[in-house]
Amino acid sequence: MSKLTQWLMGQQRPSQGDVFAALDIGSTKIACLIARADDQGQPRVIGIGHQLAEGMRTGLVADMEAVQQTVMAAVTTAEQMAGETIDHVIVNVAGPLLKSQTVGVELPLNGRDVTYSDVERIRAQGQNLLAEDAQGRVPEIVHAIPVHYALDGQKGIRDPLGMIGNALEAQLHLVSAAFGPVRTLVTAVARSHLEVERLVAAPYASGLACLVEDEMDLGCTVIDIGGGTTSMGIFFDGHMVFADGLPIGGAHITNDVARGLTTTLAHAERLKTLYGSAILGPTDDREIIDVPQVGEEEPEHANHVPKSHLIRIIQPRLDEIFEMARARLEKSGFTDVAGRRVVLTGGSSQLPGIRDVAQRVLDKQVRLGRPLRISRPYVAATRNGAHAFTGLAEATSGPAFSTTAGLLAIAMQPELAATQSGVESGGNGIMNRISQWARQNL
Ligand SMILES: Nc1ncnc2c1ncn2[C@@H]1O[C@H](COP(=O)(O)OP(=O)(O)OP(=O)(O)O)[C@@H](O)[C@H]1O
Ligand SMILES: [Mg+2]
Description:
Radius of gyration: 22 Å
Helix content: 25-40%
Bound molecules: adenosine-5'-triphosphate, magnesium ion
Shape: globular
Low-confidence stretches: 1-9, 375-387, 420-430, 432-442
Distance between the termini: 45 Å
CATH architecture of the domain at 97-177: 2-Layer Sandwich
Largest sheet: 5 strands, mixed
Strand order of the largest sheet: 3-2-1-6-11
Strand content: 25-35%
């Protein structure tokens, strides 16, 4: 464990009884987890609430009122189970809203040692380098992650804390999001009487939840295929070095099935999860499934189609998702550090055979991921500071809850987020600006 991480963990270790909450606002479900630190400072999940998301589309708020109500319902369920009320939450920003860039920053030291404030100063300087958008608005920083340091020209420093020199240089990975959609998201949560304490990039949360330490160090890509989005994060040397996302996910597959089989979305969803697959099996031409037709309630009006027909509808869309993901990853410039390993997660990663398709299209070694540190009972905190959770029901330990679990890890250990939040930056950060805006406009 690095000195910096040790120091941070010492500073941030939760005390017994502290309560933390994560709110995963997805395109198809909204999930809230509440955890309490036990006598070892370890998180124990005490409240779970999840609802079908209303009003969200491809990671964007499409209907404020609906999102607000769904958030309220999910949070209330979790609160009732926990026997606690919450007023602060950590919330995700969907992959397609994110912009990822790496910038170089230099800080004069004049012969003194590097302190934690210098690391914060480096982050703050990096944020000032963000370019304005076409309307002259500066995008909002979600993360400012120092991925690499050099001291007086000596490169390859992972953790400069306590070192002495004249000039500290850093490569910062800045993850930002456009102000408008973020403001709408935070406002929807604020109207549910909750303050957004911190925003976290969805692929970052999923990576923290699913990747093992070696994967994060040696190079790995996490791909979270949800309902309306596909979020991607590249991890290397213990950091997330690239983040991106596509506005396409499992709901698009369901749509294709509904159109292709002329059935309702609800039936298409059921057929997809019951019989769907990414690859054809030897008996799929002979196996017949019943497809209720739109407007026909009677079972005798159902169509009878071979299962292979369903699979042939699913396949091209899935290929398209992986081909688009591959193009984005290749464009990132991080293909070398990303290595050969991919971890697939998100609700749509449950489609049988998806691993083979990913392997073929991406030409990588693929494994399926779920929230590791949540489904396993008690493991010590890792070098990255993520915690093991106990008390999580089986239903919420599947791949659809990777982002949720990662958010909770950050709620317990805020330094993992590598954010310059409003509170830390003396009142000018996004949280303060948005809260101010919300107070004036709600
Ligand atoms: N067994 C299954 N087989 C195939 N797909 C499934 C299965 N179970 C769930 N899904 C799909 O997973 C998707 C939901 O995944 P998830 O809960 O990760 O999305 P989300 O977090 O709400 O959305 P997003 O992250 O895109 O904003 C849905 O499209 C659903 O159809
Ligand atoms: Mg999701």
